[in-house]
Structure of Pectate lyase:
Amino acid sequence: MGARSLLFVVLLLVAGAWKGVSGREMAGSRTHEMKQSLTEAMANRSSIAGRPEIRTEDAVADDPEAVAAMVEMSVRNSTARRSLGYLSCGTGNPIDDCWRCDPTWQKNRKRLADCGIGFGRNAVGGRDGRYYVVTDPGDYDAVNPRPGTLRHAVIQDEPLWIVFKRDMVITLKEELIMNSFKTIDGRGVNVHIANGACLTIQFVTNIIIHGLHIHDCKPTGNAMVRSSPSHYGWRTIADGDAVSIFGSSHVWVDHCSLSNCADGLVDAIMGSTAITISNNYFTHHNEVMLLGHSDSYVRDKGMQVTIAFNHFGEGLIQRMPRCRHGYFHVVNNDYTHWEMYAIGGSAEPTINSQGNRYLAPTNPFAKEVTKRVETSSSVWKGWNWRSEGDLLLNGAYFTPSGAGASASYSRASSLGAKSSSMVASITTDAGVLSCRRGSKC
């Protein structure tokens, strides 16, 4: 067993806290009652029938602080090895240092599935399945997709590790509705999903999205779309998100470059949980990331999301992220641009900001990192929001809250996140990597 694996096992034994189940443990078929429980969203979007029920609550960690501590430990361990010279190509980024030093990475692509951290670390994607090579960038028919296309790959019932034969731009006519246990791996080629519909992760589990340019996504819909080999159904108008996560669990979005979409770049709603959003480069967008459906949708109290090692870059305005209800660990990200605010929320989310670098804009009225959305201070003063070890530049300030915050975060802070002085090194390669066969990625 490797040192990283041993470390995780020890932490799990000590914490005794992770309740997570394999994404394969799904009970029963999706019932009429489940459809009715999703009243708000289902008024506008159709369900995907013919799939077993995904119990996202089974993916919730009993002790989210313990999971946060595991992220911090992995960062500390990776940077410690780097300082000792054990990793000649190490950056201190524990995800990247897990696989990028291997010059034969293309022969060991599935190694990536063992490198996740945070709440989405158990997402295995298509690790246990065969490779599927996308050879055709076309999207000819959303009901009867052509073999060799990305749409044909993602709807299959079996686990698949999806790769691309060559550089390509894929313009989707309708949402790309994914089936469970899929990895989309863009390493080694230059793949853009752009100028049409984009990715929908709805009522599924175990998804890894890595190494894609996703941009200029547009609303589509009022059309039939296939979701599996045995089912297709009517889809109403989609919002135009780059990545839409809806009622799903064990999802990891890593090393993607996302920009300029009609709605969000990554939105997770309606009971989604066990999510990690890492190493991405976000640019040129208004409402970047929405985590939580609505203030009244209390099922999102089980939402747990890790946001780590991302670069929030030029042309961004707000929602990095905007949170509701759940638990959100924001660690070692680089915030170089915002126009309104960086991190916002409502409905009593717990936000744990550690070791980030926040560079405020020149606008003297937009220096605050945080925003409580349409909530009086008499209400939000009890919410657990904290900043620990963050680097606040150019007048940036973080407004903490929660009288019991210290006790609430005691286990999360027992192993501090890596110093914010390391953020530049950790996030230097955020976004799509330039990977070529036969050399380190």
About this structure: Residues 135 and 165 are 5 Å apart (CA to CA).
